[in-house]
Write a structure and sequence with these properties.
12 strands, 6-stranded antiparallel beta sheet, mainly beta
Length: 203
């Protein structure tokens, strides 16, 4: 026996959460999207980095060639043919591993960007070649060379690069900021815990 009924109208609506925990996740959401159903969503990313080795010493006469921020993709939402405008800033306050961070909180950053990239093409399914080696799809941004000469190379062998206990208060981290609104945009999921996520100094 099949029974049916009719309802004149159903009214449905969504309620925004006051805050969402955004820390301690393997994949972080970044970017912005103007969706006809969900509206405009914008998501920035705060990151903390650690030394890959203690007692960093670049050697006498070291010259910095370039600095690259790399973060592998873990997925996407929206149309990736739309480009993103991205700014990268140095954090001006520390992040703590034993703390939880929520979507309503903004961290202080230095006013001068370390990179300001307009119209970045997002390729979450396209592998990249780095120094002759094929790697998983990733977001790659070239950072300010002069800044890292002063921040890192000129501290070669100094206490600031001795270990992470000294390094983390010295270099608090980076903010990846989704800027601009010149298209419909897209959101990408970034695998921040991947071993390829790094700030790499080529010297």
């Amino acid at each position: 026996v099949i029974r049916t009924d009719t309802i004149d109208a159903i009214q449905a609506f969504s309620i925004a959460e006051d805050s969402i925990r955004t820390s301690k996740m393997s994949a972080e959401v970044f970017g912005w999207v103007d969706d006809p159903v969900f509206g405009t969503v914008r998501s920035h990313l705060y990151m903390q980095f650690r030394l890959s080795a203690n007692a960093v010493d670049f050697g006498a006469g070291a010259e910095l060639d370039s600095v690259v921020l790399s973060i592998p993709y873990a997925g996407f939402f929206g149309d990736t043919s739309y480009r993103l405008q991205i700014g990268v800033y140095e954090l001006d306050e520390p992040m703590h591993k034993d703390s939880s961070y929520y979507s309503v909180r903004d961290l202080a950053v230095q006013p001068v960007p370390l990179a300001k990239v307009g119209q970045v093409e997002v390729h979450p399914l396209k592998k990249v070649v780095v120094t002759g080696e094929e790697q998983s799809p990733q977001l790659r941004i070239v950072l300010d060379r002069d800044y890292f000469i002063k921040k890192m190379l000129q501290k070669s062998g100094a206490p600031e690069l001795a270990d992470n206990a000294h390094f983390l208060p010295y270099f608090k981290g980076l903010m990846l900021k989704a800027e601009g609104k010149e298209s419909k945009g897209c959101l990408v999921y970034l695998d921040v815990l991947n071993s390829l996520t790094a700030v790499t100094l080529h010297y």
